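Hey team,

Filing this mostly as a record. A colleague (T.K.) asked me to run one chain through the structure pipeline before their review meeting, and I want the input and output archived in the tracker in case anyone asks later how it was produced. No errors, nothing strange. Just documentation.

Input sequence:
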Amino acid sequence: MRLLKWGEENKKINILEEQIKNLKEENYSYLDELEMVYKQLQSTIEESNITYTEFVSQIKKLNELFTSTIRALATALDARDPYTKGHSERVAQYSLCIGRYMGLSGKDLDILERGALLHDIGKIGIRDNILLKPGPLTAEEWVIMRSHIIIGANIISPIEQLQEVALLVKYNHERWDGMGYPEGLTGEEIPLGARIITLTDALDTITTDRPYRRALSWAYTLNEVKKGSGKHFDPEVVEAFFSIMKSQIIPILPESVSVYV
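Output structure:
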């Protein structure tokens, strides 16, 4: 009885092996390639004499170093204009709060943070007499100023690790209603990260001093955000922002702001 049972099991194994062989021969050669890559990675880890936990830790440290370098670059750019000192960092912090609330995590949060930090990087290519002009810009100057998003995207897109970030830099001046620039995208055609930065950039811009005007109140700002929901801003992003405000979990906002929600 046992010999008969073993014979049946052996027959099943032979059939299974034949099926696997056929699959590989038919269009699944990538399984061999995947196995080869796995073995190479395993060999690399073994040869480097580190554990998987140590390997992940090293990757995390490199990632943090990369973001720190981006933050230093953004700080240097903000320092060019005394009115925008700390602007990119504040936009990044606002954006991270909203992003987390909306369920972003891991790589998506990293992309959002870097996009927020670098959203104005293209202004490095804008002349001071336009960037720092104390009065209203002419129509021609506005064309030049608006080009900063294309300049910024072109600066960082050749860097492989920043290609997705470049999309946030390029599209953070689009509007939910399609009236923005550079391409007039509407609604969810605009990347979510860019939609978040559109709001957070506006928040900080309105509530801080600029060469052409003094800072406006938070009461005025929040009212403008409400009016802009579904027009300038993604309604879901606006809803997330006000939900966070009610929960008082944006630590860098003045405590008095919550009374206007």
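Quick notes for T.K.: The domain at 86-252 is CATH 1.10.3210.10 (Hypothetical protein af1432). Confidence is low (pLDDT under 50) at residues 1-7.
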